Amino acid sequence: MSFTAAQFRACLTGISGILVAPFDQDDQFAPARLRPVVERAVAAGVHILTANGNTGEFYGLTTLEAERAVHTAGEMIAGRVPLLAGIGRAVGDALALVKASRAAGAAALMVHQPPDPFVAPRGVVEYVRRIADAGAGLPVVIYLRNDGIGLDAIEALCRIPEVVGVKWATPAPLRLAEAMRRADPGIVWVGGLAETWAPAFYAVGARGFTSGLINVWPKHSMAIHEALEAGDYARARALIAVMESFEALRAEEGNGTNVSVVKAALALMGNDCGAVRPPGAWPLTARQDAELRLRLAEWKLMPKPEAA
Prior knowledge:
Blueprint: H1 5-12, E1 15-18, H2 35-44, E2 48-51, H3 63-77, E3 83-87, H4 91-103, E4 108-112, H5 121-134, E5 140-144, H6 151-158, E6 163-168, H7 173-182, E7 188-191, H8 194-203, E8 209-211, H9 218-229, H10 233-250, H11 252-255, H12 258-268, H13 286-298
Parallel strand pairs: 1-2, 1-8, 2-3, 3-4, 4-5, 5-6, 6-7
Helix pairs in contact: 3-4, 4-5, 5-6, 8-9, 9-10, 10-12, 10-13, 12-13
């Protein structure tokens, strides 16, 4: 099915699951390896699935691979949940990805914050405006990883007519509250730092959160979301405590193991999606691997060993 802007906005208050990018043993894009991840997430009830997010190694893909990634996700999701398509890089590449994402059936576009060392706040606004124009009416979600562009620029981004949401991925809830105060109340503000920061962002009015854990254990992410939506912060914190060590592993080496831990977990679960490309950390160290195995065993996600 296709999703209206209103339907997508409603889904945005749920979990935005960020899909991994599947590779084979020769480091080539391997679409079939993604299917179990998608099926697991859809079956658990994850509200939105995102192709070409950071857990999908967006900056490790060529533009052609990113186009293939969004088409793969679109075919596998098959309209069961909204597909959110990550858009970024140079303006020309970004516009090519918009075209591919529209063809793939994306319900909305998620614009990565440009990592250019000489980025100008007003330049970011123009960058998003060009992408929004190319989207021909598709809703746009801003992925804000650095609030250093200032509240004036964030307010200007939120005034772009196609912008329906902001994924706030900076650990500054009070700054988030001020940005929300200055924006149209119809904008959906999503916690962009996954499950662990979700309660703090919910406390100031955000709704929903992004998740890389959904590749591995989507039912647990859903349980956390349900607790937060019910206002049961004690239960949410208890559920987060169960998976907090997994997120701590992902944050090691300057967040360089963020995707590595997810992909290593998938391989241990029998759903190998390949290695992580440089500059991400791969493989895990012996200690990291041992800790990950312990977590997966505790969560009963490891396949049982075959009898001798």
